[in-house]
Design goal:
The chain is of the alpha+beta class. The protein has one domain: K homology (KH) domain (GMP Synthetase, Chain A, domain 3, 2-Layer Sandwich), CATH 3.30.300.20. The chain is built from three helices and three strands, in the order αββααβ. Strand 1 and strand 2 form a beta hairpin. The chain is globular.
Length: 84
């Protein structure tokens, strides 16, 4: 399992712990050169839970994903986007 796979699993774990409809959660990984984009799709009713007040929760998820990516040694910059 590569480091970017572990980052994807970390994001999946965090998002699944927040939402009411875990069956609606999917993560699409897009490799763009050295960068990785994780598009997180959730139920429209759960977007607010993932984003949080003033975007605090998604900022925290992005920070954790980027920190994990920086510590991986792969020079990958991880972007996390939420799609409803």
């Amino acid at each position: 399992m590569s480091d970017t796979d572990r980052i994807e699993e970390l994001v999946r774990y965090l998002v699944l712990s927040l939402v009411e409809a875990p069956d609606a959660v999917s993560i699409n990984r897009i490799d763009q050169g050295a960068d990785v984009v994780l598009e997180v799709t959730v139920d429209p009713d759960d977007i607010g839970k993932v984003v949080g007040k003033q975007g605090r929760i998604i900022k925290a998820i992005r920070t954790l994903a980027r920190a994990a990516g920086a510590g991986s040694g792969e020079d990958a910059f991880v972007h996390v986007e939420v799609i409803g």
